[in-house]
Amino acid sequence: MSEDIQAGLAEILEEVAGVAPADATPEKSFTEDLDVDSLSMVEIATAVEDKFGVAIPDDELGNIKTVGDAISFIQKNQ
Amino acid sequence: MSIHLKKGAPGTRVLGLGSYRPRRRVTNHELAQVMDTNDEWIQSRVGIAERRWASDDETLVEMAVAAGGKALAASGLAPDEVDLVVLASASLRAPIPGIGPQVAHRLGIPRPGAFDLNAGCAGFCYALGVASDAIRGGSARNALVVGVERLTDVTDQTDRSTAVIFADGAGAAVIGASEEPEIGPVVWGSDGDQYNAIEIAAGSSTMTMAGQAVYRWATTKLTDTLVEAMEAAGVGPDDIDVFAPHQANLRIVESMTRKLGFGEKTVVARDIVQSGNTSAASVPLALSALLESGEAKSGDLALVLGYGAGLTFAGQVFRLP
């Protein structure tokens, strides 16, 4: 399951922030490694909400720092 | 016995627009010398290249009078033909008295209905809706609407998340009666649950903004408002010549433009690049810039939207003078 989520997340990252899918691995930090800024994080959050049917409130968004954080958030809340 | 009503106008139209840009131009490079920021960071986050900061003599009243005077001149009306002044601002340091009456007096408008309106960055579009409905309801013949801000007065100039964004300026419109409606219905609303997303907190003198929350709200909730404003006026995206949303962030402008499907035919206001975020002044400043540059012309149909602290939003369609 987490592979499917990772692949779906990689698609969103490529579309929103131009991140190469091969780079979207769990240990990567969105801001430090993938150069995703805070507003792109919002776009990623809304795309994740649409794609995976989860809600990511603004105060939760700050806790999602890595691709792995996002994958576990989706798994827990789906 | 029954209470009589005045007969209002069948429609309204914008008769003239005017604006005032403060003299001092502040580039990203200048800001980079006094705080930890740089041109690339600012341009990629908010799309601003430079902004105008008001000097001490460019007070709210002076800027409002300058923009209002230009709008009045463009309208062809004499000051005594105006009987309503609605001044939108969110940056009065001392809110008593409101400055609408003083601005009217300075412009030689004799004893009009005059008041200030605070709907944050949505102020100009709220004021335009109120003034238009006052004319249609018979409470006024012609109205002056002003949006004016000195956001630098309420900005922490050491906070790089807001100091690079907020700026100063004024814009104004004169509106009057029309046989054919040339201003569509205002579509307005608010999301008061997010009252503290943009605020000057109690005991503070400067504004904070929850950037991510506001960005999410603007890019997900307000497209419907724009569609409703067009539907209320009976027009579609293909009819819109000029799209001038509040200039809060270039990325929000581009997101809205994409979502509404505006193509090359529609001129999109990107005045934020030169003006920063001027709150209630941004929509008339952007429209004035497009008319001055020739990118927009008289008779064009414009879609405007203001949104900001409150949170508030208001939009409408109107024909440019």
From TrEMBL, chain A:
<keyword id="KW-0275">Fatty acid biosynthesis</keyword>
<comment type="pathway">
    <text>Lipid metabolism; fatty acid biosynthesis.</text>
</comment>
<dbReference type="GO" id="GO:0005829">
    <property type="term" value="C:cytosol"/>
</dbReference>
<keyword id="KW-0276">Fatty acid metabolism</keyword>
<feature type="modified residue" description="O-(pantetheine 4'-phosphoryl)serine">
    <location>
        <position position="38"/>
    </location>
</feature>
<dbReference type="GO" id="GO:0000036">
    <property type="term" value="F:acyl carrier activity"/>
</dbReference>
<keyword id="KW-0597">Phosphoprotein</keyword>
<dbReference type="GO" id="GO:0016020">
    <property type="term" value="C:membrane"/>
</dbReference>
<keyword id="KW-0444">Lipid biosynthesis</keyword>
<feature type="domain" description="Carrier">
    <location>
        <begin position="3"/>
        <end position="78"/>
    </location>
</feature>
<comment type="function">
    <text>Carrier of the growing fatty acid chain in fatty acid biosynthesis.</text>
</comment>
<protein>
    <recommendedName>
        <fullName>Acyl carrier protein</fullName>
    </recommendedName>
</protein>
<keyword id="KW-0596">Phosphopantetheine</keyword>
<comment type="similarity">
    <text>Belongs to the acyl carrier protein (ACP) family.</text>
</comment>
<dbReference type="Pfam" id="PF00550">
    <property type="entry name" value="PP-binding"/>
</dbReference>
<dbReference type="InterPro" id="IPR009081">
    <property type="entry name" value="PP-bd_ACP"/>
</dbReference>
<dbReference type="GO" id="GO:0009245">
    <property type="term" value="P:lipid A biosynthetic process"/>
</dbReference>
<keyword id="KW-0443">Lipid metabolism</keyword>
<keyword id="KW-0963">Cytoplasm</keyword>
<dbReference type="InterPro" id="IPR036736">
    <property type="entry name" value="ACP-like_sf"/>
</dbReference>
<dbReference type="InterPro" id="IPR003231">
    <property type="entry name" value="ACP"/>
</dbReference>
<dbReference type="GO" id="GO:0000035">
    <property type="term" value="F:acyl binding"/>
</dbReference>
TrEMBL record, chain B:
<dbReference type="InterPro" id="IPR016039">
    <property type="entry name" value="Thiolase-like"/>
</dbReference>
<protein>
    <recommendedName>
        <fullName>Beta-ketoacyl-[acyl-carrier-protein] synthase III</fullName>
        <ecNumber>2.3.1.180</ecNumber>
    </recommendedName>
</protein>
<keyword id="KW-0808">Transferase</keyword>
<keyword id="KW-0275">Fatty acid biosynthesis</keyword>
<dbReference type="Pfam" id="PF08541">
    <property type="entry name" value="ACP_syn_III_C"/>
</dbReference>
<dbReference type="GO" id="GO:0004315">
    <property type="term" value="F:3-oxoacyl-[acyl-carrier-protein] synthase activity"/>
</dbReference>
<dbReference type="InterPro" id="IPR004655">
    <property type="entry name" value="FabH"/>
</dbReference>
<feature type="active site">
    <location>
        <position position="246"/>
    </location>
</feature>
<dbReference type="GO" id="GO:0033818">
    <property type="term" value="F:beta-ketoacyl-acyl-carrier-protein synthase III activity"/>
</dbReference>
<keyword id="KW-0276">Fatty acid metabolism</keyword>
<comment type="function">
    <text>Catalyzes the condensation reaction of fatty acid synthesis by the addition to an acyl acceptor of two carbons from malonyl-ACP. Catalyzes the first condensation reaction which initiates fatty acid synthesis and may therefore play a role in governing the total rate of fatty acid production. Possesses both acetoacetyl-ACP synthase and acetyl transacylase activities. Its substrate specificity determines the biosynthesis of branched-chain and/or straight-chain of fatty acids.</text>
</comment>
<dbReference type="Pfam" id="PF08545">
    <property type="entry name" value="ACP_syn_III"/>
</dbReference>
<keyword id="KW-0444">Lipid biosynthesis</keyword>
<feature type="domain" description="Beta-ketoacyl-[acyl-carrier-protein] synthase III C-terminal">
    <location>
        <begin position="230"/>
        <end position="319"/>
    </location>
</feature>
<comment type="similarity">
    <text>Belongs to the thiolase-like superfamily. FabH family.</text>
</comment>
<keyword id="KW-0963">Cytoplasm</keyword>
<feature type="region of interest" description="ACP-binding">
    <location>
        <begin position="247"/>
        <end position="251"/>
    </location>
</feature>
<dbReference type="GO" id="GO:0005737">
    <property type="term" value="C:cytoplasm"/>
</dbReference>
<dbReference type="GO" id="GO:0044550">
    <property type="term" value="P:secondary metabolite biosynthetic process"/>
</dbReference>
<keyword id="KW-0511">Multifunctional enzyme</keyword>
<dbReference type="InterPro" id="IPR013751">
    <property type="entry name" value="ACP_syn_III_N"/>
</dbReference>
<comment type="subunit">
    <text>Homodimer.</text>
</comment>
